[in-house]
Write a structure and sequence with these properties.
- The chain has about 425 residues and is mainly beta.
- The strands form 2 sheets. It has a 36-stranded mixed β-sheet that branches.
- Strand 31 and strand 32 form a beta hairpin.
- The termini are far apart.
């Protein structure tokens, strides 16, 4: 009997273990199903010690404020933050709503090191208004249907505006003055109202605008009287006027690297009265017949690097130097160029051991410096060829050895140039 009872006790223990294992498996499966339903969004809770906030008002004491109710603010600004080192957190649950009264803001920030996150703000003149404040963070905010701007940085420094949904505002994100702000990974969809703009930068310097999705604005992005800005990997589509408009920016290089501009109803990229602008790896597509993929008006020292443009119109003055570079070489025009065409990629073509300019375009047939790269260094008696024949010394002058690997030479007129004795690129 003791033996049998011992066996029964062991069997009961085994049975209990199996029950615990089965229960654990059920919990894991339920957890997996819940995670699958909510996606990758984490379940969010405000940290312990946060201050509950349940009505419009002024925050004048530093702390972590957790919005605990949706707020309605007809006719006046709802939240004013004047305390440094403050977090205002909507917990992914709550909305702040106005009635489109002119001059109002959903949240106005007038202090340094303030974070606004995880809430929706709508129907004010400005959704989130950062005024002469530094090191502000605006993250995971829905700024929807505000009459002037969804998010506005007014003479602010080092702001971080990321992962926001900014829709149906006259201006999605505005940067007015200030510098060194990061605007990235925002979804910005505009209005059909005239002059609506996805991102508008005015009199500001050294900002980083990256990986934004900008759709259905009259102007996708405007850089006006602003310098030293770096635009990286932005996607701009379905602009009713220009996808990218740069104007009156003459002090410091604006760089546009990567990204696409597509389906613009007028000029896809329009640059005027601007110096030192660089396009690197930019692709423009699906423009319209009566306008241009790229239009330059009174632009000096422009560079097009590994970028793709179809139709173009150039109007250059005051000693413009246009540089076009591809992987196998480059051409730098030394005289002002002008004119228009239907395919810039064909009219200025750079392939292995060949720079080709459509010389029937009189405005492109100018003096230039040509660089050919990745050439062999073990050949002899090489020559610069012009349209397949030796180029006279009066037209071509080489600055480097023609056996140098990277060969640089000057030409008086533009047409097709190569180096003799080279038939194909290296493997």
């Amino acid at each position: 009997m003791d033996f049998i009872c011992g066996k029964r006790g062991e069997l009961n223990r085994i049975h209990n273990v199996f029950i615990i294992i089965a229960f654990s498996i059920v919990i894991l499966i339920l957890g997996f199903l819940i995670f699958s339903l909510i996606g990758e969004e984490e379940i969010y809770f405000a940290p312990p010690g946060s201050i509950n906030f349940t009505s419009c008002g002024t925050i004048d004491v530093s702390g972590y404020y957790a919005l605990n109710a949706s707020l309605s603010s007809p006719s006046f600004t709802c939240i004013r933050i004047i305390a440094n080192n403050t977090v205002f957190d909507g917990d992914f649950l709550y909305n702040i709503t106005g009635d489109l009264t002119p001059g109002t803001s959903g949240i106005i920030v007038e202090a340094d090191n303030v974070t606004i996150k995880n809430l929706n703000v709508s129907k004010f003149s400005i959704g989130v208004n950062v005024v002469y404040a530094n090191y502000t963070k605006v993250n995971n905010v829905g700024a929807i249907n505000n009459s002037l701007a969804g998010i506005n940085l007014n003479h602010s420094l080092f702001a971080n505006v990321t992962n926001n949904v900014v829709n149906l505002n006259n201006v999605g994100i505005a940067i007015d003055g200030g510098s060194n702000n990061s605007i990235g990974q925002n979804s910005i969809r505009g209005l059909t109202l005239a002059l609506s703009t996805g991102i508008f930068a005015f009199q500001t310097v050294d900002n980083f605008l990256y990986s934004n999705q900008i759709f259905y604005n009259w102007y996708g992005a405007v850089i006006a009287n602003s310098n030293g800005n770096y635009l990286l990997g932005n996607t701009i589509s379905y602009s009713f006027v220009n996808g990218l408009f740069i104007s009156d920016s003459t002090l410091k290089n604006n760089i546009i690297r990567g990204g696409t501009v597509s389906y613009s109803s007028q000029d896809s990229v329009y640059v005027q009265s601007t110096d030192d602008v660089l396009f690197d790896g930019v692709a423009v597509s699906n423009g319209v017949t009566n306008f241009f993929d790229l239009e330059f008006s009174n632009v000096n020292r422009a560079s097009l690097v590994n970028s793709s443009f179809g139709s173009y119109n150039f109007s250059f003055t005051d000693g413009t130097l246009l540089r076009v570079k591809k992987n196998d070489g480059e051409i730098k025009f030394l005289q002002p160029i002008n004119g228009s065409g239907s395919n810039l990629n064909n009219d200025i073509s750079i392939l292995y051991n060949l720079v080709s300019v459509n010389s029937t375009k009189a405005g492109l047939n100018k003096s230039a410096n040509v660089t050919l790269e990745w050439l062999p260094t073990n050949l002899t008696n090489q020559q610069v060829l012009r349209n397949g024949a030796p180029c006279p010394a009066s037209i071509c002058y080489n600055f480097t050895s023609l056996n140098a690997g990277t060969v640089l030479f000057n030409v008086i007129y533009c047409t097709n140039y190569s180096i003799s004795g080279i038939s194909s690129p290296p493997p």
